[in-house]
Amino acid sequence: MQTFKDRFGLSKRALASIYRKAANLIKVHGYRKGEFGRKGYGFCAVGAVMSVIPGSYSPLSPLKALGISGSTATVMAWNDAPERTKDEVIRAFRRAARLLEHGAVIA
User: Fold this and answer.
1) pLDDT at 8 over 90
2) H helical segments located in the chain
3) What angle in degrees, to the nearest 10, is found between the helix axes of 86-101 and 45-52?
4) Which helix (H) or strand (E) holds 57?
5) What is the pTM of this model?
6) Given Cys at both, which of 3, 43, 80, 105 links 47, Cβ 3.0 to 4.6 Å?
Protein backbone atom coordinates (compact mmCIF):
# COMPACT_ATOMS: atom_id res chain seq x y z
CA MET A 1 0.00 0.00 0.00
CA GLN A 2 1.30 3.42 -0.97
CA THR A 3 2.02 5.78 1.94
CA PHE A 4 0.87 9.38 2.14
CA LYS A 5 4.46 10.51 1.61
CA ASP A 6 4.78 8.28 -1.45
CA ARG A 7 1.60 9.74 -2.97
CA PHE A 8 2.11 13.42 -2.18
CA GLY A 9 5.87 13.83 -1.75
CA LEU A 10 5.92 14.85 1.91
CA SER A 11 4.65 13.70 5.27
CA LYS A 12 1.28 14.61 6.74
CA ARG A 13 3.10 16.58 9.44
CA ALA A 14 5.05 18.57 6.82
CA LEU A 15 1.89 19.33 4.86
CA ALA A 16 0.09 20.37 8.06
CA SER A 17 2.96 22.78 8.76
CA ILE A 18 2.65 24.25 5.25
CA TYR A 19 -1.09 24.78 5.73
CA ARG A 20 -0.55 26.47 9.12
CA LYS A 21 2.09 28.78 7.67
CA ALA A 22 -0.22 29.64 4.75
CA ALA A 23 -3.02 30.47 7.20
CA ASN A 24 -0.68 32.70 9.20
CA LEU A 25 0.47 34.54 6.06
CA ILE A 26 -3.14 35.38 5.24
CA LYS A 27 -3.86 36.37 8.83
CA VAL A 28 -0.85 38.70 9.03
CA HIS A 29 -0.69 40.10 5.49
CA GLY A 30 -4.32 40.00 4.43
CA TYR A 31 -6.52 38.14 2.00
CA ARG A 32 -6.80 38.51 -1.76
CA LYS A 33 -9.05 37.25 -4.52
CA GLY A 34 -8.14 37.03 -8.19
CA GLU A 35 -4.37 37.18 -7.64
CA PHE A 36 -1.72 35.21 -5.77
CA GLY A 37 -0.60 38.19 -3.69
CA ARG A 38 2.55 38.94 -1.70
CA LYS A 39 3.75 39.95 1.75
CA GLY A 40 2.46 43.31 2.88
CA TYR A 41 -0.37 43.11 0.34
CA GLY A 42 -2.23 39.89 1.08
CA PHE A 43 -2.52 36.37 -0.36
CA CYS A 44 -5.10 34.08 -1.88
CA ALA A 45 -5.12 30.45 -0.69
CA VAL A 46 -2.90 29.25 -3.54
CA GLY A 47 -0.57 32.24 -3.32
CA ALA A 48 -0.05 31.69 0.40
CA VAL A 49 0.93 28.05 -0.15
CA MET A 50 3.21 29.00 -3.04
CA SER A 51 4.88 31.60 -0.83
CA VAL A 52 5.53 29.05 1.91
CA ILE A 53 7.22 26.58 -0.44
CA PRO A 54 8.10 28.16 -3.77
CA GLY A 55 8.73 25.76 -6.61
CA SER A 56 6.84 23.38 -8.79
CA TYR A 57 5.49 21.03 -6.12
CA SER A 58 1.84 21.61 -5.31
CA PRO A 59 0.91 20.76 -1.72
CA LEU A 60 -2.66 21.47 -2.77
CA SER A 61 -2.82 17.96 -4.24
CA PRO A 62 -4.43 16.36 -1.18
CA LEU A 63 -7.33 18.81 -1.33
CA LYS A 64 -9.78 16.61 0.53
CA ALA A 65 -8.18 17.79 3.79
CA LEU A 66 -9.48 21.24 2.95
CA GLY A 67 -12.90 19.86 2.10
CA ILE A 68 -12.38 20.71 -1.58
CA SER A 69 -12.29 18.18 -4.38
CA GLY A 70 -10.48 19.03 -7.58
CA SER A 71 -7.41 20.77 -8.94
CA THR A 72 -5.43 23.88 -8.05
CA ALA A 73 -7.87 25.75 -10.32
CA THR A 74 -10.69 24.50 -8.07
CA VAL A 75 -8.94 25.95 -5.03
CA MET A 76 -8.56 29.27 -6.84
CA ALA A 77 -12.27 29.26 -7.73
CA TRP A 78 -13.16 28.37 -4.12
CA ASN A 79 -10.92 31.18 -2.84
CA ASP A 80 -12.34 33.71 -5.31
CA ALA A 81 -16.02 32.95 -4.66
CA PRO A 82 -17.84 36.20 -3.81
CA GLU A 83 -19.02 34.84 -0.46
CA ARG A 84 -15.57 33.59 0.61
CA THR A 85 -13.99 35.42 3.55
CA LYS A 86 -10.50 35.73 4.97
CA ASP A 87 -11.57 33.98 8.16
CA GLU A 88 -13.09 31.09 6.21
CA VAL A 89 -9.86 30.51 4.27
CA ILE A 90 -7.79 30.64 7.45
CA ARG A 91 -10.18 28.20 9.17
CA ALA A 92 -10.01 25.82 6.19
CA PHE A 93 -6.21 25.72 6.30
CA ARG A 94 -6.17 25.21 10.07
CA ARG A 95 -8.82 22.49 9.85
CA ALA A 96 -6.82 20.72 7.16
CA ALA A 97 -3.70 20.91 9.34
CA ARG A 98 -5.57 19.45 12.34
CA LEU A 99 -7.02 16.63 10.23
CA LEU A 100 -3.60 15.76 8.86
CA GLU A 101 -1.99 15.86 12.32
CA HIS A 102 -4.66 13.52 13.65
CA GLY A 103 -4.13 10.95 10.93
CA ALA A 104 -6.89 11.78 8.47
CA VAL A 105 -7.07 9.37 5.59
CA ILE A 106 -6.93 11.23 2.30
CA ALA A 107 -7.88 9.25 -0.78
Assistant:
1) no
2) 4-8, 12-29, 45-52, 72-80, 86-101
3) 50
4) none
5) 0.81
6) 43
